[in-house]
Each structure stands twice: as structure tokens, then as C-alpha cells.
Amino acid sequence: MFDRILIANRGEIACRVIDTAKARGVSTVAVYSDADRTARHVAMADLAVHIGGAAPADSYLNGDRVIAAALETGAQAIHPGYGFLSENPEFVEAVEAAGLVFIGPSAGAIRAMGLKDAAKALMQDAGVPVVPGYHGDTQDPDHLSGAADGIGYPVLIKAVAGGGGKGMRRVDDAADFADQLAAAQREAQSAFGNPAVLIEKYIEQPRHIEVQVFGDGTDAIHLYERDCSLQRRHQKVIEEAPAPGMTAEMRAAMGDAAVRAAKAIGYAGAGTVEFIVDGANGLRPDGFWFMEMNTRLQVEHPVTEAVTGLDLVAWQLRVAAGEPLPMHQQDVPLTGHAFEARLYAEDVPAGFLPATGTLSHLSFPATARIDSGVRAGDAISPFYDPMIAKVVTHGPTRAVALKKLAAALDATEVVGCVTNLSFLGALARHAGFTRGEVDTGLIARDLDALTAVPPPSPARLAQAALAATDTDTNTDALTGFTLWAPLWRTITLEIDGQEITARVARTGPDTAEIEVAGTTVTARNVAGWTFDGTPAAASHTEGGTVTLFGPDGVSARVLDPLDRAAADASGSDIIEAPMPGMLARMLVAAGDSVSAGQKLAVLEAMKMEHALTAPRDAVVAEVLVPEGTQIEAHAPLIRFAGDDA
Ligand code: ADP
User: Fold this and answer.
1) For residue 645, is it within any domain?
2) How far is CA 92 from CA 33, 80, 102, 316, in A?
3) 39-48: per-residue pLDDT in tens?
């Protein structure tokens, strides 16, 4: 076994590899970019080497720099993780030329699977079923359209160098073929520098089922299948093992085919053989076809680890160190069912746009396996994949594992950036998915329902309003009441861009009434607060924002009454003090141009400082009160030049 390895990656996969290395007494070297100086994987590793700028091309894709870091630190082997340099045969050759071990397959095996057409031809020769179609060299449009006629529409045009769904076009009608072909070729040329395409039968209700294989260069076995059919635009969202509806017969046939594929290229290490399955006819041993092989550890490997109880990274290290496969095929366990959901910083309503932010609060339940590269306080930067964590659950049955997934997502708390958490939760509760009806079109068909944001319930609004009474500035009002005589307070919350006003009265030490959304909610604290009987959601309050977690969670910004007073005065030229206090600072002078939202002055009231902001763009005509003055409510502080000034 190695004494020291370098991990040529970042984020959750670097942390994942370091975990196993540590458990096996192998010392670890992290590499990091400018953006990752304080990243979790750097903190976890025994040594860390800075390899360049934040852009991947300047650091994690710079093979020479990575190899130099390994040599400098005395690492004997390099684990590539996934993405970045993991499927780059030239990198493998350079690692080996430097006298180091690449923890993965040979450069030859990666090359053999690098292009879809050559891989399909190779697999066909090895007796692996491939999607019916044309994957020859002739790229003449007439020849290709003739091939499409022969296959029968609908067909799929695919870039042979493709990845990530680029250069892929579905064609339903022969009349559209020429245009779609030209478009696919253009896209392939610009994305991969290779315009060559292949033509495939389009499978109408496809399921994506992949087989985890493991080789030691001589022998190969499989560790069963994963179903990754839950996709959005060809990107996996939730993965599971085993595949719903899988029969022993089909599993044996798929496993056999995958092992044949691995053996055909003398595969060493962890790999995945991806098949497409026709979901319209149920799972049948003659109804699956090879799509491609990923010659690396996959993002979704934890579901295989959950159902087999094996550590795939440990296997990778052992095989790379020259040991034979640790297990015989017939001894590989398969227990229960597992799910993995990919939690991303992304703006779902905005079309799943990647988001950035600083995770001011991050908490996961202990009931799930969490693979994450970030901690509370870490940033999701614009430079890399915005994954926050993989949430993995395991149970004796699919139903139990899925319930555990939904519960784990409900109990996951993220503050500081938008996430796809509620989308994942909706998927985990989707009726069809719950029944095991999975195909790659499910998400697109039900996208509206899966991304709908229901209005917050009165109970949740009441909780947010009550929490806001502890955060806003008028805390003196709370200490002022006598004998719990109700004292109504008005709280304004901004939720999803909408202002919601609530009135809150503390009616006793453990009771309150909240008027909101046209109803009155009674809050009681008996071993925890309830709102009209609904238990309070877990919550986090920070920086004037109350976040309630869970499936019906709410993020509410508490609007400062002072800001609002200024806003109410937006039509006027006079900026008044919204409450009595002391003018701590005056930040503008006569003649200054100010823009809407700019801080004008700081008022000290109720032992707190409050900023007064400009309600609109304006020019300051006159400052009416000097700093340090005690002022009454509504005292005029600043006069703006009128429109006619
Ligand atoms: P890429 O390498 O660009 O990701 P793949 O060949 O892996 O492309 O296919 C990506 C996805 O496209 C699959 O998971 C599946 O959803 C869909 N797909 C691929 N081939 C077919 C086909 N012949 N018929 C229907 N859908 C397909």
C-alpha cells in the first residue's frame, strides 16, 4: 500500500478520498487554487500545495503542476477524483512517466472508451448489446440520412466526442434530418473540435441504468447497478440502487455485459458502464443497450457503497497498489436500497441557474450519509461546480430508504445561498417516483409541480413574525408590558419579494396571538412552540432574516420600521427622524448627490444604531440637524432639493 497519495481534485470528492486514505493510514496531499486556500479538503489533508489561480485551467487542469506537487511532497500515487484530469489519457501517461502511479485505469483503456463510435464498435465486438444505429466513419449527409431511414424514426444524432448532452439532437421526421444534422455537427465542432456524429434509435421512454464495475487489469467483476433515470436536461438529480423493478435475470445479463466491456479493455480500477433501457416494456434481459463507459469513480458511487457495504475508494487504492480484486463476484453483498440526492446551490425558479454565496449556516441530520466539501462559513464560488453536498440514505426497502431521504432533506439546513433543496424534497415525495415509475422524462413532464412554491401557511408566517419580534429593534416594547396585557406590535416581513404585515401580541410568557394572512394564529410554548397546534419549524435568525427550515420552509427578511418610515416619506423632500433618538452620524452634506438606498445618517435609538436611507435619487439641499443632537420623532433632519430646484 502507498504511504502517501496526492488527490488531484477539490470539493466533496477530494474529502471523500482523504477520508478513506486516513482510515487506511495513508498520508494525503491536497492541491488547491487561489479560491480554495481555506477549503475543507485543504484543512483535512496532511499536506497541501498551492497550484495556481482560481480558474480550473490555471490549477486543477494543470497536469504538470499537479505532478510537480506530487514529486515535491513525496507522494507515490495520484487519485484524480472525477472531472478535471480524471479521464485524460495524456495526464495518465505523464503521471506514469514521472514514476508515479495513477489511481485509475490505463491510458489505453481511457482512450478506448473516449469516443462513442469507437467504444460502440469495440463493445459490439465484445458481444455487448449496443443501441441500434450507425456508428461508422462515413459522415456524408446522404449516407447518414439513409442510415436514419434504415433505423426508423425517431432517431438521435450524437457527437462521437460528446459529453454533457452537447451535440445531441432528436429527429422525429426525415424532413428535418438534414437541418438537425448540420446543427449537431456545428455544435460538436465548436464544443469538442470534432464534428463526427453517430445515429441511434431514439428510445421513447428511456431509463438510464449503469453498472459499477471493478477491474484489476486481468479480472473484472461488477457491483450491481444504479438507476440514474431521474435527470434534468441529461443531468442526474437523484440516483438509486438497485434499479426499481430489476429482476435477477436482467441483473445477471447487464452485469455480464458490463464485465465483458471491462475485460475487453483490460480495465483496472473503478468504472461505470452506462446502459439505456427501454422503460416502455418493463425491464427485460433483451431490452438494454450500451451507451458509454465512464473510466473513473462516479459522483453517485455512494449508493453502491450503501447497498454493498464496500468502500470503493479503498478498493481503488488496493488495486492501484498492485493487489488483486478483493472479492469474487458471488461474494459481493447486496442489501436493501439506497438513494443519493445532489444538493446544489442553484436558483430553481430562475431555471436552475448556478448560485453563489457564503453558507452562514449549514447543518445536516445524522440519519443520512453526507458527502460534502464545504462547512458553515465556506463560500460557494463561481469557479466550480456549485454542489453543496450529496445526501445518501439506505434502508431495508426502497420505500424506507426514500422516506429517509425525504426526512433527511427536510432536516437539512442551509442559509446563505439559494438551493435546490425543496425541489429535491418534492421529487422524493413525487407519487410516480415513489411507485418506482422512473424514466428520464419524469422531471420535465412534472417540472411545474415539482418547482411550485406554495404560499407559506399562516402557521409558518406566524412563527416568522414571532421570531422577528426578537430580532427587530423595539425590544423595549417587550419588557414594557405589565401583567401580560396584550401589546400589539406590527411586523413587516419580506418573503419572495412580497411584503407581508403581521400583528403580534405576547399574551403571556408562553403564549402569543399573531394576526397574519387574514387569520389569527394562537402560539403556545409547551415543550416547544406550536402555532395553531402546528409544531414550530427549525429556524435560524441572522442579519435580520428569519429562516424556517423544512418542506414548507420560509425565508423572511424583517423590514426595519425605520427604513419603512423613510420609504413612506419618499414623495417628500424632508427626511424625518422616524423615532426619538440621538443623531449619531450625519453622512451627507449640502450639495451631495445621493442615490436611492444610500445611507444618509445614523440614528441611535433603543440602544441600537439605525441607518436612515435615501428613499430616492436626490441632491441634498440642506442638513437641518448637527450630529450629536437629541431629536424627537418626526424631527426634520435633511432637506432634499425639490424637482424644480
Ligand atoms: P453524454 O455523453 O453527452 O452525456 P450520453 O450518451 O451519455 O451523452 O447520453 C446522455 C443521456 O441522453 C442519457 O442518459 C439518456 O437520458 C439520453 N439518451 C442517450 N441516448 C439515447 C437514445 N438512444 N434514446 C433516448 N435517449 C437517449
Assistant:
1) no
2) 21, 10, 6, 15
3) 999 999 999 9
Same domain membership, residue 445 and residue 347: yes
Identify each DSSP E strand in 373-438 by its residue range: 379-380, 387-395, 413-415
| CA 17 – CA 316 distance, rounded (Å) | 10
State the cell numbers at 331: 461474494
Is 140 within the bounds of a domain?
yes
Task: Give yes or no for residue 162 CB within 6 A of ligand 1.
Answer: yes
pLDDT of 571: 64
Residue 456 has pLDDT above 80, yes or no: yes
Q: Which structural domain, as residue segments, surrounds residue 323?
A: 126-131+206-327
Phi/psi for 330 (5° steps) reads -70, -15
Q: What are phi and psi of 628, to 5 degrees?
A: 90, -5
* Residue 281 within a domain: yes
Q: Angle at Cα 89 formed by Cα 84 and Cα 90, nearest 5°?
A: 90
φ, ψ of residue 625 in degrees (nearest 5): -135, 130
Co-location of 98 and 154 in the same domain: no
The mean pLDDT value for 599-618 works out to 78
Are 342 and 311 within one domain? no
Triad 58, 86, 305: Cα angle to 5°: 130
CATH no. for residue 151?
A: 3.30.1490.20
Residue nearest to atom 22 of ligand 1 (CA): 202
Tell me which amino acid residue 134 is. Answer: Y
- 296 carries an active-site annotation: yes
- What is the rounded distance in angstroms from the CA atom of residue 94 to the CA atom of residue 78? 11
Pull the grid cell for residue 547: 429562516
Ligand 1 atom closest to the CA of 167, numbered from 1: 3
Taking the CA of residue 440 as reference, the ligand 1 atom at the shortest distance is 16
How does pLDDT run across 486-515, given as a tens digit for each residue?
678 889 999 988 899 999 998 888 999 999
Last residue of one domain, picked from the residues 309, 327, 345:
327
Q: What is the pTM of this model?
A: 0.85
Task: Please tell me the predicted confidence (pLDDT) of residue 643.
Answer: 58
Query: Is position 110 within any domain?
Result: no
CB of 202 closer than 6 A to ligand 1?
Answer: yes
Main-chain dihedrals φ then ψ at residue 633, nearest 5 degrees: -55, 140
**Secondary structure of residue 366 in the 3-state scheme:** coil
Please give the Cα distance from 553 to 495 (Å, whole number).
11
Task: Determine the distance separating the centroid of ligand 1 and the alpha carbon of 305, expressed in angstroms.
Answer: 25
pLDDT above 70: residue 528? yes
Residues 212 and 185 placed together within one structural domain of the fold? no
Q: Is the pLDDT of residue 372 over 90?
A: yes
CB atoms closer than 10 angstroms to residue 526: 8
Site to substitute for ligand 1 among 231, 276, 289, 439, most atoms within 8 A of C-beta: 276
165 C-beta closer than 6 A to ligand 1: yes
Q: How far apart are CA 520 and CA 542, in angstroms?
A: 26
Residues 221, 234 within the same domain: yes
Same domain for 537 and 499, yes or no, is: yes
Ramachandran category for residue 230: left, alpha or beta (phi over 0 → left; psi -120 to 50 → alpha): beta
- 423 and 492 both lie in a single domain: no
- Pairwise CA distance, residues 54 & 69, whole Å: 17
User: Do 477 and 502 fall into the same domain?
Assistant: yes
Selected catalytic residue, list 251, 296, 369, 398: 296
| Residue reference for cell 451535440 | 167
Q: Indicate which CATH number applies to the domain containing 418.
A: 3.30.470.20
Q: The sheet that has 574-576: what strands, in order across it? A: 574-576, 636-640, 618-623, 593-594
Q: Count the domains in the chain.
A: 6
